[in-house]
Design brief:
By secondary structure, this protein is mainly beta. It has one helix and ten strands. The strands form two sheets. Strands 7-6-5-10-1-2-8-9 form an eight-stranded antiparallel sheet, with no helix packed on it. Strands 3-4 form a two-stranded antiparallel ribbon.
């Protein structure tokens, strides 16, 4: 009986590893799909190399708001309020400071994890970039 259970566990584990490999673990990070946002937002993304890309269906880790910490609090800032976000290094390794300028003109400083993925759709396909590679995101006026 113990041999049967052990053999069953090995088979289940191996099939799970095969599924994980086939769905992308150990493969490429190329975006074949992007999260569908609750509300579509267009944005212009400038990466650290200076490349500028216009995207639709923009999301911050699948969400339509910037999230992070402000002092000791966790905050979210909806995209519809943001005119521009500029990312700069933070004193804490693994984090960046997101300087968001609201359409009303008010600045907001939010600390974000530097490995958060941002997604969008371009005229040529899907787009994925981690925050640490972004210099600036600009949203059109409402």
């Amino acid at each position: 009986m113990r041999r049967f259970v052990l053999a069953l566990l090995v088979i289940v584990g191996a099939s799970g590893a095969g599924v994980a490999w086939a769905t992308g673990l150990g493969g490429t990070d190329a975006p074949t799909r992007i999260p569908v946002p609750a509300k579509p937002f267009s944005a212009t993304v400038e990466d650290r190399s200076g490349t500028i890309v216009s995207v639709s269906s923009a999301t911050f880790d699948g969400e339509v708001f910037l999230f992070g910490t402000l002092g000791e609090a966790q905050v979210t800032v909806p995209f519809e309020k943001i005119k521009e976000i500029r990312f700069e290094p933070a004193s804490d390794a693994g984090s960046l400071v997101a300087f968001a300028v609201l359409h009303a003109g008010e600045p907001v400083r939010v600390v974000v994890d530097n490995d958060v993925p941002c997604y969008g759709e371009t005229a040529f396909g899907f787009y994925k970039i981690e925050v640490k590679s972004i210099r600036r995101i600009t949203f059109p006026s409402p």
